[in-house]
Design goal:
Layout: H1 5-23, H2 26-33, H3 39-53, H4 59-90
Helix pairs in contact: 1-4, 2-4, 3-4
């Protein structure tokens, strides 16, 4: 199976952020795992995503959208690390 650039990037990000798991407390892990965008940010991301799928973004909007997508990806990896830490804390 051929890995895509996105897959390789996500794997690299996962490895780079792996040490974060060891630094988390149960409280900080829960806070990271529970992170959600506020309503205005989510609405903006949804709007940009819709326009992106319709190929209607300006250059500035495309840059904003790509920045947000990268941030969401990083947050998702951090949340996976946090959930992993929470499982470790729950283990006897």
């Amino acid at each position: 199976m051929t890995s895509t650039v996105a897959d390789r990037s996500r794997l690299a990000l996962d490895r780079l952020l792996d040490p974060v798991r060891a630094a988390l407390t149960p409280e900080s892990a829960r806070a990271i795992a529970d992170l959600r965008a506020d309503a205005a940010t989510q609405a903006r991301l949804d709007w940009l995503a819709e326009r992106h799928h319709e190929s209607q973004l300006t250059a500035e909007e495309l840059e904003e959208y790509e920045t947000m997508v990268h941030a969401v990806s990083m947050i998702a990896v951090l949340q996976a690390k946090a959930r992993s830490a929470l499982k470790r804390f729950a283990s006897p």
